[in-house]
Amino acid sequence: MDKFVIRGGNPLVGTIRVSGAKNSALPCMAAAILTEDEVTLENIPQVRDIETERRLLASMGAEVELREGKQQDQTTICCRTLSDPVARYEIVKTMRASSLVLGPLIARTGAARVAMPGGCAIGGRPIDLHIKGLEKMGAVITQEHGYLEARAERLRGAHLVFDKITVTGTEDLLMAAVLAEGDTLMENCALEPEVADLAALLNAMGARIEGAGTATIRVHGVSSLHGARYRINPDRIEAGTFLIAGAITGGDLIVSNCNAAHLGAAIAKLQEAGARIDVLGPDAVRVRAVAQLSAADISTEEYPGFPTDMQAQYMALATQAEGVSLVRENIFENRFMHVQELVRMGANIKVDGSTATVRGPTRLDSAAVMCSDLRASASLVLAALVAEGETIIDRVYHMDRGYERFEEKLIGVGAQIQRLGNVFAPRDPAEVAG
Fold first, then answer.
1. Which of 59, 174, 222, 413 is the 20 to 30 Å CA partner of 199?
2. In percent, how much of the chain has pLDDT > 70?
3. DSSP assignment letter at 284
4. 22-231: what fold?
């Protein structure tokens, strides 16, 4: 099982390039199910979740080809034949995005059998909103033996109001609606850029979608979609992670190939904490820690609020800030599992329900720590970059799910990191909670 060995103390200096957004790429790959033609996606990150999605589509009968270019990675998917519309548990057990094939499979084939999703063990992410919406569109769905069985001759447009904001629910039902008969009105939709990314691809494929990226989306169903070529947006969570890396190490870091417009909450909070942020253009941001960082509270919210996927990384930063920072987690009920590992390194953190109180600055010391989920992995790396001595981080396969060549990028700007083991090495099935 892979480990990172990190020696802290080096400020990160230079330019670091952001990869494509994993959380955009996954639904866009699922959207290829909706057409018999080829769909070519550019700027696809080479991470474990993407490989899982490739295997999933291939298991259904799709042809999936990866081409590695000089500046970008490209995947071509052709779902001309979907001989086996089943998302098997043994493939999707580590990935929440398995639910994203439910809507397109029903819309395209009239049937789907999808294993209940896995992913990070950060709390309940119920699929009931997907089911409720698809049933309102005419699908018949049953659950047995850990699988959802769904059937529909053809979905019908409907008025869908989400009881709570859900990104994957918005994406799944959006894909179902594009081939439904008639119009679909979706309200209380997720505003995340990843939803707008998916809608842009679907429109390029011939869908008729209005309002993606707002709370109200209107879809006029069409009888079929065609192929398209589309470039995935940069990963805003990776970009935010690197901005925090530059600030926490007292470095001078340019984060390139990002979308600065998607980083508003992260940039504002880093500025409040005392980091100097310069937006160099639409696709580059510079971060410098020009003085002692100061405590600043965060409260995770749906986009455009502070993202839950950056809560753990910000907590690492808060350990080095002067004063008391309150970190409130409002999205997932079990997303403080990194706290005990940071405390092992010397952090002063107390948790009371959904709020963590972080007192700093504290000296972090080297320790053997363990990753519990994808973003917790990043927080431990950030802490190790400023810790005294040599930190060993175990179970970094969690990080490989969502960060492309993370350690290589950090090494390129001055970090001292060594990976022990083999990238994407097989692992014990009992250890796939993330």
1. 59
2. 93
3. E
4. UDP-n-acetylglucosamine1-carboxyvinyl-transferase; Chain (3.65.10)
